[in-house]
Design a protein that fits this description.
- The structure is a single chain.
- By secondary structure, the protein is of the alpha+beta class.
- The protein has 3 domains: 37-185, Alpha-Beta Complex (Adenine-n6-DNA-methyltransferase TaqI, Chain A, domain 2); 187-222 and 414-452; 224-411, Adenine-n6-DNA-methyltransferase TaqI, Chain A, domain 2 (Alpha-Beta Complex).
- It has 16 helices and 22 strands.
- It has helices spanning 9-15, 25-35, 42-45, 91-96, 145-152, 155-164, 175-179, 188-222, 240-246, 256-264, 272-275, 317-327, 371-379, 381-390, 401-405, 414-450; strands at 39-41, 46-50, 68-71, 76-77, 80-81, 87-89, 107-110, 118-120, 129-130, 134-139, 182-184, 269-271, 276-280, 294-297, 302-303, 306-307, 313-315, 334-337, 345-347, 355-356, 360-365, 408-410.
- Strands 2-10-7-8 form a 4-stranded antiparallel sheet. Strands 13-21-18-19 form a 4-stranded antiparallel sheet.
């Protein structure tokens, strides 16, 4: 069915937009709704809305293992700032880029890539920085940054963002557009209520991270890996027999640190193939992707903490029904990435009505090992160093199934496995609660708008 909108010429002139996409019926519906409530622009409720970054310096920045966090677009997602995968810059570079520093209490919104993701700079490190694709909003005292973030991530905020996206080589939005986003004026009492819920969500997220960290530390202590420090060696000798048996001739594979890891867990190990059956996902081809339907779970949708909707693709109901018998994972199975970012393991907690991509493997337990324990081991330094050693590829990194089968897993006593698994499950529950609270904050903003 064709959808269309009739627009007065005067509106075209005031909006400075002639593209039909801008005047979709859904966008006009939201515009009418916001016209019916009291609103102000982001510019009117803010002290400043700025963006600054290292356009000319990005290729010359030397990333560090630690230092000043440098936020990119991918670090702003699901209403929070993800510092777990952040890159770091030196104090010197931070001083050069001082205009792009992030301050506590600012609202950060992405302007390229995954556009329109908003988060509050909440309990951030004393020094933090960000790239040019993020806008930083410093609000006036009478508007809560948590409330604004909830609005920007809500239906009414995201649709405003979608409407303003400018498509060229890379879709983006500009500061002038962000400044003109309309925000409902919410009473101080309601703002406090929404902020309280949002803060509770962020607290639950921190609790989740703490619990997972406890599980990791318990594993490292019990497996005697707590003080293990992998070090690069400039030179070393390798036996020809080792080269022949591994079918590898690259020097990196034979770094002594990998041998040291193997010997560290030698007395208490089992190969992954002995613990699980392994089944690969499927690649139906991008021509099968749809805007709606059943989720097609790709590597980019998976983390050790769960399945996200980053750039989610969908398959038709008909194709889903055809594939689900062989390619729909079940509760208790472990999803493991083998391509692009190999070595991410996650235990499925709830039923999934979707299909997994060819870059993901399904691991089904065939021994009495705790699934949460096994996933944590793969995600730990023990699993990740084996991925680092094995994986290869020029454009896209691959961890081959034959290498995955031989991944060594330390087997700790059942009682210790259960303690580690219990902490991991508690972490998952706290993360789930955090997601629910952040969603509740968004819904409260939406209801305030819709009741007026």
């Amino acid at each position: 069915m064709i959808t269309y909108s009739i627009i007065q010429k005067s509106k075209l002139e005031s909006a400075l937009r002639l593209d039909a996409e801008f005047y979709q019926p859904e966008y006009l519906k939201i515009e009418r709704k916001l016209n019916s409530v009291n609103t102000k622009t982001i510019n009117e409720i803010s002290k400043s809305v700025v963006s600054f970054g290292a356009y000319s310096l990005t290729n010359y920045i030397e990333w560090q293992e630690s230092g000043v966090p440098y936020l990119n677009v991918e670090n702003i997602k699901d209403g929070v700032i993800d510092f777990d995968s952040v890159k770091f810059i030196s104090e010197k570079v931070d001083e050069i880029l001082k205009k792009s520093r992030v301050k506590e209490g600012q609202v950060i919104i992405t302007m390229a890539g995954t556009i329109g993701e908003a988060a509050v700079a909440h309990n951030i490190p004393k020094k933090s920085n960000s790239n040019q694709a993020t806008a930083k909003i410093t609000l006036k005292e009478n508007f809560s940054p948590y409330c604004l973030t909830a609005f920007l991530n809500s239906y009414y905020g995201r649709e405003q963002t979608e409407r303003e996206i400018v498509s060229s080589v890379q879709p983006n939005i500009f500061l002038r557009q962000i400044k003109n986003f309309r925000v409902p004026i919410i009473s101080a009492e309601k703002q406090k209520e929404i902020e309280k819920i949002y803060r509770q969500g962020l607290d639950e997220l921190e609790n989740s991270k703490s619990l997972y960290s406890q599980a990791e530390n318990l594993f490292l202590e019990e497996s005697r890996m707590k003080d293990f420090k992998p070090e690069e060696s400039l030179s070393y000798v390798v036996d020809l027999s080792d080269v022949k048996s591994t079918h590898r001739t690259d020097a990196e594979y034979f770094q002594p640190k990998y041998k040291k890891l193997t010997s560290k867990i030698k007395s208490q190990k089992s190969k992954l193939l002995d613990l699980v059956s392994i089944k690969k996902g499927i690649e139906p081809g991008s021509k099968e992707y749809q805007e709606k339907g059943r989720p097609f779970i790709r590597v980019s949708n998976l983390s050790k903490f769960g399945i996200n909707e980053n750039n989610q693709k969908y398959l038709s109901e008909e194709l889903y029904q055809k594939l689900k018998k062989d390619f729909e994972p079940g509760v208790g199975e472990i999803l493991l990435t083998k391509d692009a970012t190999p070595g991410i393991a996650y235990v499925i907690k709830e039923p999934i009505e979707g299909i997994i991509a060819g870059g993901i493997l399904r691991l089904k337990l065939k021994t009495k090992i705790e699934p949460e324990y096994l996933a944590l081991v793969i995600n730990s330094i023990v699993g990740q160093m084996q991925v680092e050693r094995d994986a290869g590829g020029s454009v896209i990194v691959h961890w081959r199934p034959d290498q995955i089968k031989n991944c060594l897993i330390p087997i700790l006593p059942k009682s210790i496995q259960q303690k580690i698994a219990n902490l991991a499950r508690q972490s998952h529950r706290a993360r789930k609660k955090a997601k629910e609270l952040l969603e509740e904050a968004k819904i409260k903003v939406e209801r305030i708008i819709e009741r007026r």
